[in-house]
Design goal:
This protein is α/β, with parallel strands linked by helices. Helices cover 46% and strands 7% of the residues. Helix 8 packs parallel to helix 11.
Length: 600
Amino acid sequence: MITADAFLEALNLPTEHPYIPYDASASDIPDAVAPKEWSITNYFYSWKDSPSSSPAAQDLTSSIDCSSNFPMPSWAAKFTSNNVCNSEVDAAPPAIAAGSNNTSTEVSFLEEISPCLVAMFHMNIILWAPIVLLICLRRLMKKPLPRNQRIDRQDGGESETNKQTASSKTFPPIITRADQHLPVMTHAKKNQTTHQGKKAKAIQDTLSFFVYPTNVFSKAESQDEAAMSSPTGGYFTYIVGLFFSALVMTDPMYVFEFSQAALVMIHLLIITLGMKRLGAKVALYTALPVSAIAFYMIAHQDLNLPTFSPGLYYDESNSLVTTAVSKWPIDKRTYDDGRGTPWMMTGDTRTGLPFMFYKIPEIDFQRRWIPLPDEKEAVILDVAFPSNNVIESNKRVYLVLHGINGDSHEGYVADFVDRQVRQGNIVAVMVTRGLGDSPILGDNILHFARTKDVEAAARALKTAIREVSDDGGLLLSGVGYSMGAITLANYVATSGAQCDLDAAVTISGALDTTQQVKFLRSASLWQPFITKALRDTLLSSFGNKIRSRLSQQQLQESIKAATLVDFDRTFFVPYHDFESLEDYYSRLGAMGDFVSYDNP
């Protein structure tokens, strides 16, 4: 048995930053800034506190004064116009200082966030597509009402069937032939009312499609009758069904989940139902342009779908791996064992819904700092222990690397930490240099091809394990999410036999990051949000450092970057003097500049 105090003592790391004076102990972890997760609303509404409100978020080597709510006014605007932020750039070359006074090159806030607005629109359409398609199919398959029961669209009057019922209601007095001085005015009012009623009913029938769109089963019958009892409502439903069926059969995520053949059949079913309801001529003429564009995209679009089947892949000539595989039951080698969430149709929903509805548990972290003496820097290591502060010798120690622009408070990280400490394990979360309100003293700010910080964290944990566990029963396992998974895999690949981890698991990462430029769907759907959050974090915390290295033009280009690929090319590559984007990505991924197995 090992106590938490004994492990922390063996870890022998300082409780505050070793190279700056302010207190950053576990009890004083800055909490003025909420975790910068990729919630859409965070990018369009001001926060109560500024990221520069806590000491750890400040650029400690500069005298910049840019305190205001995030992200409005835009952090990007602060560093492209002296009218927004009156700062001193001590180390900036004259050309940069002169460029910062040129307000004609200022990037507007709308220009900066426009990629996020477009992506938000795209994301909503993609996520709502299955529900909208279900409503369209249900309404188009509904048997049309007899003609004598439909609303008379020509005069706005009642149907023949309803006229008898209408006689029991109260109406204005009927004008008879005896009232010869009134008919002209009465007919004029009637025609005006009929014309207004005709327009109102057309608008109502069209918009009725969006009435309670998520209420698929309850009140469905009455809503369908209201929407489909007129030609306007039926035609509009047909158009919406065509558009969304074409959308899903060309979207890589839906094609991966349901196969393109099944989605094409749904599109053809929509056309068939439209022909039955609206007539072949109207339905086919309407479907022709939509279907032509969709099938052209299918023929020429590269969906970047996986070319291999799920499973366990390993080198049988490696005796160590083969021994581990032999002890791993086959039924445990996949997540597809019925315990998942089949009601979440795609990876988009399986990623987004937990962020929206899952309650993040509160984790009691013990904060330590890992010194990097050669750079006079330090990175955060947040350590969590079981509630009883006792660890059995057969338990595990986990080193967790969070995703891009995250920290130890990310929901998916907190969920993993909570589950593991409940099982009696130790979990240590390394916060990426410069993130999570951590300071950087020099100019060497974060980039994600750096593995020396992970190496220092793994070595510190391994040293502590050897001191407290004589028999080596405690195993050190690495767990990486997203960008943290990429960094973890890169560390394992580059460290080789010197790797201090006993095992490593990467989740939603990549081995060959040079393929990132091909992922057009992620570039248009979710990367704009991640890019803006990362850019705002860097500009708010390390503004002077950035302005001292990047020219005004380079800064402008990085601010306008809509995707992570664009931001990597316009920011990380020039700031850290990589030769090119390909050079950065080859250093970032575990496979390096690997081309193929035939030509490595």
